[in-house]
Amino acid sequence: MKIEHIAMYVNDLESVKKFFERYMGAVSSGLYYNEKTGFKSYFLTFGDGARLEIMNKPNMEDAEKALSRTGYIHIAFSAGTKEKVDLLTDQMKEDGYEIISGPRVTGDGYYESCVVAIEGNQIEITV
What we know:
With 127 residues, the protein is of the alpha+beta class. The protein contains two helices and nine strands, in the order βαβββββαβββ. The strands form two sheets. Strands 1, 2, 3, 4 and 5 form a five-stranded mixed sheet that branches. It is globular and about 50 Å long.
């Protein structure tokens, strides 16, 4: 069994789409829009075929996102090398995103950094 896709609701659909296209190399589907419900979504496809659906609809609840909470906590992307992790982390920092850890080697041997990047959600960049 494999994960077919992961989905997340966002407030600013276009800006989140641009984030994943710019930093993570996503290729976006066309916009799906349901006129009856106001639901909109894009499927973003990444280099290895993984997909993320970003969605928006009217009247969503937007609770505060604590960094340590139950539930899904981050999406991890493999940059391929330590140098690419460093470069992408530096680029995101220069662009104003909050780096909350790294780049560093974790206790379990990962080389990674964590960034609060999209609407309070964490992105992990690893080798």
